[in-house]
């Protein structure tokens, strides 16, 4: 799957990009028709510790899924986003199966 990582207000290091790629690739075992995904990472300028925001947009034929999570670290936010997307993709797959 093609994963586009967009960093807003900071520069992203290679290790984080690789982590995101591996985590997004795991989604393909839940739904194999995923075309691409866009991962937007933002740092909010607040005194709050949970200032890392990750938005993941997944493109599947006929639909797009968008998940937004805010956490202390980008890794945690990516994990939570991926878990939400797993549930969405499984739901989508079951919905399509029931129509066939």
UniProtKB/TrEMBL annotation:
InterPro entries: RHF-like (IPR036567), RHF/RaiA (IPR003489)
Superkingdom in the source lineage: Bacteria
Coiled-coil stretches: none
Name of the protein: Ribosome-associated translation inhibitor RaiA
Higher taxonomy: Bacteria, Pseudomonadati, Bacteroidota, Flavobacteriia, Flavobacteriales
Record gene name: raiA
């Amino acid at each position: 799957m093609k994963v586009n990582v967009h960093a807003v207000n900071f520069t992203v290091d290679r290790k984080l990009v690789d982590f995101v790629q591996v985590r997004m690739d795991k989604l393909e075992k839940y739904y194999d028709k995923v075309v691409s995904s866009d991962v937007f990472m933002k740092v909010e300028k607040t005194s709050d510790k949970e200032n890392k925001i990750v938005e993941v947009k997944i493109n599947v034929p006929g639909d797009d899924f968008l998940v937004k999570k805010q956490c202390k670290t980008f890794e945690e936010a990516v994990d939570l986003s991926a878990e939400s997307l797993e549930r969405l993709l499984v739901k989508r797959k079951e919905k399509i199966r029931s129509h066939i």
